[in-house]
Design a protein that fits this description.
single chain, mainly alpha, Rna Polymerase Sigma Factor, Chain: A, 2 domains, 5 helices, DNA-binding transcription factor activity, RNA_pol_sigma_r2
């Protein structure tokens, strides 16, 4: 039977841990590292992930001690699930965060990101293929699946006129 625990928010931890809950969380603190290892995050993962995992452990301890229906399960089962969900939720938030790239930044090949953007007046198939290759390299280099580019006519890149 799968146990559904509510999502973590600032509202879910509304009181400090009791001594029993604190002792339980301290006793199973190494479970954080086990879950991080199982998710291939390593022990050197950033502090945001560790903080989310620790919060998940504390909330699991609180919930386990206050909800008698959870007493029939082992604490490690409840805590592992809570920690894992907290880490996956945080990782999902980080991956969905937008990546800001400057169109004026110089790339390794000497061009700018303006050169990658498709030009509607360009009809030469060779130029289109080169632009597609550059776009694929950009996506790979910056670990983005897709990007949305906005051109604003108010300002222009250095050395270029406003569009």
């Amino acid at each position: 039977m799968k146990v559904r625990l509510p999502d973590m928010t600032g509202k879910t931890m509304t009181r400090p841990l009791t001594d029993a809950e604190r002792a339980l969380a301290e006793r199973y603190h190494n479970l954080i590292y086990r879950v991080m290892h199982d998710l291939h995050l390593g022990t050197e993962a950033d502090t945001d992930l560790y903080g989310e995992a620790a919060l998940g452990l504390m909330l699991a301890a609180q919930r386990y001690m206050t909800d008698e229906s959870l007493q029939r399960y082992r604490f490690t089962t409840i805590a592992y699930s809570r920690i894992r969900n907290a880490l996956l939720r945080q990782r999902h938030k980080e991956r969905k965060a937008p990546v800001a790239l400057s169109l004026d930044a110089w790339r390794e090949d000497g061009g700018t990101l303006y050169d990658v953007l498709p030009d509607k007046s360009c009809a030469d198939p060779a130029d289109i293929a080169i632009r597609q290759e550059r776009a694929a390299a950009l996506q790979k280099a910056h670990a983005v699946r897709s990007c949305r580019v906005y051109r604003f006519p108010v300002c222009a890149a250095p050395g270029r006129e406003a569009a």
